[in-house]
Amino acid sequence: MAVEVRYPPAPSELKLHLGFFSTEDRDGPSNDNDDRKRNQLVHHGQNGHLQPHHRDGETTPSARPQAHHLAHRIREIKDYQLTHGKLLKVLPLDFPTRCHSINLGVSASPTPFPQHLFTQALHLQELMNELYMRVASDSDWLGTVLGPLLEHDDMLRTLWDINCKVREAKGGSEVSCGIFRSDYMLQQPEAGQEVSLKQVEMNTFSCAGACHAEKVPLVEAVLPSLPPLPINTASITHTLTAAYKAYQPHNIPSRKPCILIPIQPHNFNVADELPFVHALWNVGLPTYRCEWQDLLSLTTLTPELNLLYHPPNSTGTGREVAIIFYRAGYDAAEYASKAGKATRLRLEMSRAIKCPDVRGHLAGMKAVQQALAQPRMLELFLQDSEDIAKLRATFMSMQPLSTPSATALQITQAPQEAEHYVLKANREGGGHNIYGAEIPAFLASLPSKQEWSRYILMRLIEPPKDINGLLLLDEEVYEGPVVSELGVLGGAVWRSCQEGRGVEVLENEGLGWTFKSKPWDVKGMNVVRGLQLPSAQEQEGLEQEPQPPFMSFCRNISLWSLEDDRMS
Ligand code: ADP
Ligand code: MG
């Protein structure tokens, strides 16, 4: 059952979508958006009060905050967000001296998550870090997995070429840093079955959401039921500091080396980026952000492969860079020009410690995740059979499309076979997945079958269908069944041995977590989506129509409670 209630205050209309299950209605909601719309009723509140009603006119269940309490809570949450920088910039309104922003989508009430699975996910992180340190150190294995995919994937080929050039020139740093985020969803195909934890993906590059996740609106109504907040920014700063200490300064200018953060221009999610800069300065580490397209002109590489950063309008020899903490360089558009490729090559060639270096970046490709899920692969990197079993238990079945099996071929051909799968490209940043029945038509639309090799197939996780949430979305309040994702942050610093899988671990720890929820019928999970990058033509100095920056949907962040009773 679903109801829509309108909340009058101008200028924007706030809608309340209600989608409760009655006890007889346990099969879960339809995946069909139209169904949801058909079931909505509109009820106009009076005097600015929310008046949620069921479709049949019943009053709403008492567990839900009453309309005026909800309106009050929403006001409190918005005030909290405003005063804690839980905001996104509205780029089209970026006036010379004024910065406009909107608050991020959040929950208005905690979403339950099983305590034991939360603990399990946290405990897995050091092992996950170790696995990815070893994978990222093993160029030969990465070559076996990614080599067959290079021909039809420009960005992958660019990154792989850079890796080879750095290796041939014996450049780069033997110390690497990783800030990882392993994402999980709950799996419970049928009501009553045991709930388990399944990995959605492992992020190794520019993991988002860490700063937002620690700013949970601590409004009175939800305070008592929240678990302790993570301290993500400080923990990530700790890992970067450990990497900084591992850097051997060349000391060309006799000043402290700095941390360089390559960033994307026009980033509307600065509230998830700038806190790192402040935190690093606060622990005494000079830290500079530099936009991707300016890196070539603002850096130089010495014959000894020291990277020097020359802040705009500065004079002198520049600052030696100890750490490169990438927040840009994951989008294919950033490598579309020669300048983009040269930028990454220069950074990678340098002695600076990268977070992550190009091999760490490659290790985060979906094709690597798929390869690791194959039998006997984890054994190449980890010794302990119990550890291996623990990680493997979180993996979903995945299929390559470079050499499709008979099963994969069936999935790619028939919509009803494809229904349980998601098609994923080796890309970061969200929005590249194709879901379920749309897969065959999408694959058929590609110019050739060779192009299929850019994708992998992953079995869809089937989350519990009866977890309700209360989400403040862009312009509406959604109340109804939700799907949540727990992201566990990990930090690692390691020294790769010359060849093979050996690593000397300098730092390995779980750092914190993020938690996001979305309405049941939303397939992807992009907390923030939308980039405005200078196109290749702009970078080459050609005229180009300005592209409107777009701000797409924000799903809610971090309001949740740990519960085992309800969910076991
Ligand atoms: P990216 O974040 O790089 O776009 P993800 O693998 O995280 O790629 O997929 C994006 C979103 O799609 C996830 O956050 C999740 O909501 C959904 N998703 C991805 N894989 C699965 C899966 N196997 N089962 C269910 N949902 C999935
Ligand atoms: Mg993701």
UniProtKB/TrEMBL annotation:
Its EC number is 6.3.2.3. It comes from the Eukaryota. Residues 45-68 are annotated as: Disordered. Coiled coil: none annotated. One of its GO terms (cellular component) is cytosol. InterPro entries: Glutathione_synthase, Glutathione_synthase_a-hlx, Glutathione_synthase_C_euk, Glutathione_synthase_N_euk, GSH-S_sub-bd_sf, GSH_synth_subst-bd, PreATP-grasp_dom_sf. GO terms for molecular function: ATP binding; glutathione binding; glutathione synthase activity; metal ion binding. Keywords: ATP-binding, Glutathione biosynthesis, Ligase, Magnesium, Metal-binding, Nucleotide-binding. Pfam families: GSH_synth_ATP, GSH_synthase. The keyword Nucleus does not apply. Pathway: Sulfur metabolism; glutathione biosynthesis; glutathione from L-cysteine and L-glutamate: step 2/2. Belongs to the eukaryotic GSH synthase family. This is glutathione synthase. The lineage of its organism: Eukaryota, Fungi, Dikarya, Ascomycota, Pezizomycotina.
